[in-house]
Write a structure and sequence with these properties.
CATH class of one domain: Alpha Beta
Radius of gyration: 21 Å
Strand order of the largest sheet: 1-3-2-4-6-5-10-11-9-7-8
Bound molecules: glutamine
Number of helices: 16
Largest sheet: 11 strands, mixed
CATH topology of one domain: Amidase signature (AS) enzymes
CATH superfamily of one domain: Amidase signature (AS) domain
CATH architecture of one domain: Alpha-Beta Complex
Structural class: alpha/beta
């Protein structure tokens, strides 16, 4: 599929809210089958320009939509996502549908089962439109590492949508789905949400099952939703969250009604307003002044809504990027060992001997960034370096987590920029992987600490590029993050 675009174009279109769509489906005014067909039409029109969808699951979607229409016609109570068109990042498996993880090495692989998050969406009535482009094995911050070509930002097609879940964010911004699923290991939901002007959720580690998520770095990987507004994102999280016996790290904690939580004002009458921490270290050197100005306005809006704003300090932030890139690459090197040309997808034709088959398949199947990370990770784990690098990184990770816990004893949520800059131009950073890694500074800390967060649109630059505020909360306190994000959203900055 070609994604050639001559001049910058824009494809932003706000989808209708979940509540409005459900009401229309329940009353019979809108048929789920027509809605799905309409979305497929829009995808056919603009996907060649944006390169968001890698494959469509039309048959499955239309069968599900027909079931929803039948239930609505009978007047049966409708499931929470009945008829809602949703797209799935291509790192989550769907039975019988291609699963590429943005890599050539998985070309042709069709998994025999559904990821838990996918199965839960469908059980709640969602209509799954197809699989969405992303950086190869979710490694990247711009979507330029996909073996299937980059995704373009619907706000400005000369710019990246962010990554690795750039396609999932772009799909919502361009109304190619009402909501989508992505994955976040070091910022891959929050940063693209910020670049495309949509809402993205990083659930607490273990809140959403990783069963059926193609692994990048298992101790950091999370599955979470994108939507056009906070309440819809909260509703989706409520559907996919909860214990799963198929993922031993999934939390047993009961799942609150996140949508209802998000409805609570930040200052309830007769109570003190939520306490918001602003970490000094996140407003230092390297932060684009326009991003800073937008976030400052967001903080002022929270103040006005009745929150108590306090400075907090997270002094280990400066070690977060190297710590993340040690742990993530170490785990990736182990997780990606399974792609050997035998069990999944691509096998090199140069297979004279077994070991030639392994090495040629991996050499031809993996892209440059994935190879770089396998090398880095293998090095960090090797005897003699393990203590100096990997163990040290684990120790710093613990310090970062403790620092957050101390901060959350004082405040209910912490607000920061999501990324130091707005969306950058395609090709701008591809020659400098280190610059790309350093831009993850504001997102990797929460990944390492296991805490949760929401990125919410918080104004734009003069050129109209979206800026996202990151709202972080303690483990399993997604409700607080949603409330704060709702208040920022309501300020219409
Ligand atoms: N940009 C980060 C990386 O390249 C985060 C990726 C992610 O969260 N999957 O590793």
């Amino acid at each position: 599929m070609s994604s050639e675009v001559k001049a910058a174009e824009t494809f932003v279109e706000k989808p209708r809210t979940l509540a409005a769509l459900r009401a229309e489906i329940a009353s019979g005014r809108v048929k789920a089958t027509d809605l799905a067909a309409g979305y497929y039409q829009r995808i056919a029109q603009i996907n060649p320009r944006l390169n968001v969808y890698l494959s469509l699951t039309k048959e499955r979607a239309l069968e599900q939509a027909a079931r929803v229409d039948e239930a609505a016609a009978k007047g049966d109570p409708l499931a929470p996502l009945a008829g809602i068109p949703v797209g799935i990042k291509d790192v989550l498996v769907m039975q019988g549908a291609p699963a590429t993880a943005g890599s050539k090495i998985l070309k042709g692989y069709r998994p025999p089962y559904d990821a838990t998050a996918v199965a839960r969406l469908e059980a709640a009535g969602a209509v799954l439109l197809g699989k969405i482009n992303c950086d190869e094995f979710a490694m990247g911050s711009s979507n330029e590492n996909s073996a299937y070509g980059p995704v373009r930002n619907p706000v400005d097609t000369e710019r990246v949508p962010g990554g690795s879940s750039g396609g999932s964010a772009a799909a919502v911004a361009a109304n190619m789905a009402v909501a989508t699923l992505g994955s976040d290991t070091g910022g891959s939901i929050r940063q693209p949400a910020s670049f495309c002007g949509v809402v993205g959720v990083l659930p607490t580690y273990g809140r959403v099952s990783r069963y059926g998520l193609i692994a990048f770095a298992s101790s950091l990987d999370r599955v979470g939703p994108f939507a056009a507004n906070v309440r819809d994102a909260a509703t989706l999280l409520g559907v996919i969250a909860g214990h799963d016996p198929k993922d031993a790290t999934s939390s047993l904690a009961p799942v609150p009604d996140y949508a209802a939580e998000s409805d609570k004002p930040v200052k309830e009458s007769g109570k003190a307003g939520l306490r918001i921490g602003v970490p000094t270290e996140y407003f230092a050197e390297g932060l684009d002044p326009e991003v800073r100005a937008a976030i400052d306005k967001g903080i002022a809006a929270l103040d006005k809504a009745g929150c108590a704003i306090k400075p907090v300090s997270l002094p280990h932030t400066k070690y977060a990027v190297p710590t993340y890139y040690l742990i993530a690459t170490a785990e990736a090197s182990a997780n990606l060992a399974r792609f050997d040309g035998v069990r999944y997808g691509y096998r090199s034709p140069k297979s004279e001997t077994l070991s030639a088959m392994y090495s040629h398949s991996r050499d031809e199947g993996f892209g440059a960034e994935v190879k770089r990370r396998i090398l880095l990770g293998t090095y960090a784990l090797s005897a003699g370096y393990y203590d100096a690098y990997y163990r040290k990184a684990q120790q710093v990770r613990r310090l970062l987590a403790e620092e957050y816990l101390r901060a959350f004893a004082e405040v209910d949520a912490i607000v920061t920029p999501t990324a130091p800059t707005p969306a950058f131009k395609l090709g701008e950073k591809t020659g400098d992987p280190l610059a790309m890694y350093l831009a993850d500074i504001y997102t990797v800390t929460a990944s390492l600490a296991g805490i949760c967060g929401v990125t919410v649109p918080c104004g734009a630059t003069k050129a109209g590029l979206p800026v996202g505020m990151q709202v972080l909360a303690a483990h399993l306190n997604e409700g607080a993050a949603f409330r704060v994000a709702r208040a920022v959203e309501a300020a219409e900055l």
